[in-house]
Design brief:
By secondary structure, the chain is of the alpha+beta class. Helix content is 25%, strand content 31%. The longest helix is centred in the first third of the chain and has 19 residues.
Length: 179
């Protein structure tokens, strides 16, 4: 009887410890951070921000479409409008897919370059192609991978104004890292 009670206590203790140390898995949204922002115009007010947000229902639905597209043996990059990507798009990898929001943008700020850190570190000089869906319409941004693995992405004033009033998704495609 003592052995049975001991086994039950060990099982309860093990389950308690397992749930005490359980943490949610990391997602792309958890691993993506906006490190700094630069503007071409006026210095922005303190309440201006570009932030990573939880995926909306639209983002989840879009990702499901991409998954279905890839199941047919196609490259993820081929899902996006061809005019937004280079000719070798089928060779690109899609490593990031996040919800992104623009808060309190004013046209006086001009174009904005945001330095983002992703779960995937990029190599300086690696070709990176961020695409943003603004209420379902895909646009492309210019980007440059940095020495520290982050990526500087430039958004035009026109894009930012639209993003401030919309549901946005960002997909980041890149050439494979040199091995």
């Amino acid at each position: 009887m003592k052995k049975l009670i001991s086994l039950v206590l060990v099982a309860v203790l093990a389950l308690s410890l397992a749930t005490a140390y359980a943490v949610p898995s990391k997602t792309t949204n958890d691993l993506t951070k906006v490190l700094e922002i630069e503007t071409t115009g006026e210095k922005p007010a303190d309440d201006f921000a570009i932030v990573i947000v939880e995926d909306s229902e639209a983002a989840k639905a879009e990702l499901e479409k991409i998954i279905e597209f890839v199941k047919d043996g196609k490259a993820p990059a081929e899902y996006f409008p061809a005019e937004l990507l280079p000719e070798n798009a089928s060779e690109l990898e899609m490593n990031e897919f996040v919800g992104i929001a623009v808060l309190n943008y004013k046209p006086e700020y001009g174009d904005v370059t945001a330095k983002l850190e992703f779960g995937t570190p990029y190599n300086a000089g690696q070709k990176v192609y961020p695409l943003t869906s603004i209420d379902g319409e895909w646009t492309s941004e210019t980007a440059e991978a940095q020495e520290d693995g982050a990526v500087k992405i430039t958004f035009t004033a026109e894009q930012l104004q639209k993003m401030a009033e919309a549901t946005n998704i960002m997909a980041v495609l890149s050439e494979p890292a040199a091995k």
